[in-house]
């Protein structure tokens, strides 16, 4: 079962996630991080920035692989995930740019971009910790409902719901690309630790479906139930539809001191 931790607010989630990631980097300076974009992980990146400074951790050897990228958006477009990862993660944390990878969403070579990305992740030795947000339609990465649990990095069509949700980053919904390239559910499940974060009432149903719903391709987030090491960090609003909430609180309150996230 995933460990579900209900936190006071987003900042508390950011601190917990960052603490776990920094402990990993301290023990393994060339750790491989799985990076997510969107609004949810921003608190983690800000907490990492503070933690790196305060603990004086050398992050120059840290490697990273982003979950996904829009297809057909120029890499220098401010909302391309390459640009977002550079602006929100690489620069503020002081990571080494050449060690941080984002799937190649340019149309040239898109046919083999997925396979290339899979190969690069495998050659790195695999992702140590994967940050995940969840879409209101239940997607993780951009694996929309119906995505195979065996899927690997490939091109997908975004749902209308996801394009609506992401319109806030663009001038209009029409400007949100129709296609993306995303790590598959099988790719994500290969990471050694999954850190799934969700905040706000709008995520409550998707989160409950992922954690407690039937394991189904119609509900891509439910793939996390197949992974042996998942930590879910949620605020009260996002946790509001969980049936076993009392037990999650009880288990966390009585967590053995020697256990980490
Ligand atoms: C982003 C990603 C998506 C987002 C999800 C939630 O790389 O893969 O799964 O995590 O769409 O987005 P936010 O955090 O903006 O609500």
UniProtKB/TrEMBL annotation:
Pathway assigned in UniProt: Amino-sugar metabolism; N-acetylneuraminate degradation; D-fructose 6-phosphate from N-acetylneuraminate: step 5/5
Active site: 68, 137, 139, 144
Domain of life from the UniProt record: Bacteria
MF-aspect GO terms: glucosamine-6-phosphate deaminase activity
Pfam family, one: Glucosamine_iso
Catalytic activity: alpha-D-glucosamine 6-phosphate + H2O = beta-D-fructose 6-phosphate + NH4(+)
Keyword field contains Hydrolase: yes
Domain Glucosamine/galactosamine-6-phosphate isomerase: 12-225
EC number(s) stated in the UniProt entry for this protein: 3.5.99.6
Stated role: Catalyzes the reversible isomerization-deamination of glucosamine 6-phosphate (GlcN6P) to form fructose 6-phosphate (Fru6P) and ammonium ion.
PANTHER family in UniProt: GLUCOSAMINE-6-PHOSPHATE ISOMERASE (PTHR11280)
Family note: Belongs to the glucosamine/galactosamine-6-phosphate isomerase family. NagB subfamily.
Protein name: Glucosamine-6-phosphate deaminase
Organism this protein belongs to: Leifsonia virtsii
Gene giving rise to this polypeptide: nagB
